[in-house]
Amino acid sequence: MEHSLIVSQGRVADRTGGALVGARLAGDALSALLGVKAQVVGTPSAPVEDDWTESLPAAADTLRELRSALATALDAGTVPVLATSTCAASLATLPEVAARCPDAVVLWVDAHGDFNTPDTTDSGYLGGMVLAAACGLWDSGHGAGLDPTRVALVGARDIDPAERELLSAAGVRVLSPAASNPDAVRTFVGDRPVWIHVDWDVLEPGYIPAAYRVPDGLLPHQVAAIFAALPAGAVRGVELAEFEAGEPDIPERLSVELILETFQHLIRA
Asked: What InterPro entries does this protein's entry cite (predicted)?
């Protein structure tokens, strides 16, 4: 299957300066691995510690361009691979996936649920509300349509109490790190196509730096084993987000190599 590559370089709720750089570095490496030229969306700008009411309109152009780029990639019959800065970029992609691939399930591989709404968020962070928006719990202005019963959180362990209630009521499958294994994920996916979103904070801190570190995460080989267990040909697209480049304790080169090693298990799938 032919791949296409989309690299997001527009600020989408970035509160730190490393994720846009991380998306570019990951995009460059993926371009070399896949042998395809990346389509770059947006222009980098400085991070801002703002509320979702400010970051959402500020990201409008980037989100529209991302959705258009994804639509073009799907129309071309390719498997899109996206390197994005924050999970909030999925405000653009998930509604397109829901519209184009309604039979697909979504693996949201993330330490967090990202299922808060404007009524439940304590932080005001847009990235913590993206999956709830795609499932129609609040209106981001960028679409919805994702069936929450077709979503599984993989490696989730930092979920707010109100957020957990919303996840339960909506029917989202929540797999803790202990429950996130190849058999459980393969059983959830079954013979259905799958869209994969990875926030690198799903990992135990110390492997691929992320802005929001949560202990007791998955190890890289565990994520790789989950990906390797997916049915061949099932993957319809992959999003890789939240690689916080520039952390002094983890060399960027090693992080990029680990991203590629983990991702390569999805090329077969």
From this structure: Ureohydrolase, Ureohydrolase_dom_sf
